[in-house]
Amino acid sequence: MEFSLRCASVLVPFPFNNNKRNRGLLRAQLSDENDPLLRLAINSASLQPLFMDPYAGCLVPPHTRLNFENSSKHYCIATKFIDDKLLRTVNHMDGLKQVVLFSDGMDTRPYRLNWPSSTIIFDISPERVYQNAIEKLQDVGAKIPRSCLFLHVPLESSNIQEALHMKGFNGNRPSILAIQGLPLMTLASFKEILLTVSGMAMDGCLFLGELPAWLAETKIGTKSSTEKWMDNLFMSNGFKVNMVSYHKAAKSLGKALELGDHKYILFVAEQLRFSDDQ
Description:
Keywords: Methyltransferase, Transferase. This protein is of the alpha/beta class. The protein folds into two domains: 2-67, no CATH class; 70-271, 3-Layer(aba) Sandwich (Rossmann fold), CATH 3.40.50.150. It is 38% helix and 21% strand. The strands form three sheets. Strands 7-6-5-8-9-11-10 form a seven-stranded mixed sheet, sandwiched between helices. The chain has a two-stranded parallel ribbon with strand order 1-4. It starts with a strand and ends in a 7-residue tail after the last strand.
């Protein structure tokens, strides 16, 4: 059984290109230079994690084989990019800080990230998956940072925006919203999420994350590029969106990402409208 790197590793490494040609060249250079310090530096760099996740291991089924394919590398880059953007944004918020995570129910961000005090994290995910994951996380001692609050809203709620308000979300205060791993079955289901986010986020707030590329491919028969499709979809809900290149994101993290197929779109969008509460 294989399991994606995204949920499997305590250290999330980003290995070098391991094709035979490069391995042979690397060995030759090390032999010619005869430099043990260089060898140590290269070996160490290949194991440098993009991020630490001390809790993901408890969510992995026993006897699971890790999958280090290229798609997992893209996922790791996206995860680190989203992590950094979330923390940079909330650290510039005054007073109460609101974070909304649309996830698959196994997102460990509430536990592993160093959230500033007065941060409220709202998780929107499938109820059954979330309850199973939270039990395992509590068993290994996972805890939310002090002076922070973590609240769950089932994805199956008939009105997610209303459910968030019942939990204390305030559309008159700044927030940042992120999506990664949320099971989206149709384009219509994402449009519902986007409409909900548009009603929640006050002007200037960010919505970012990773979307399956097949969402854009459902617009069969149009000549629009994915970027134009994203612009039209997000602008119709009051957001100015920018697609983020995985390769540029990797470069900003000091990593080299091989060209290859990946099935997701990384994006950052800014709300241009007022929220429903404003």
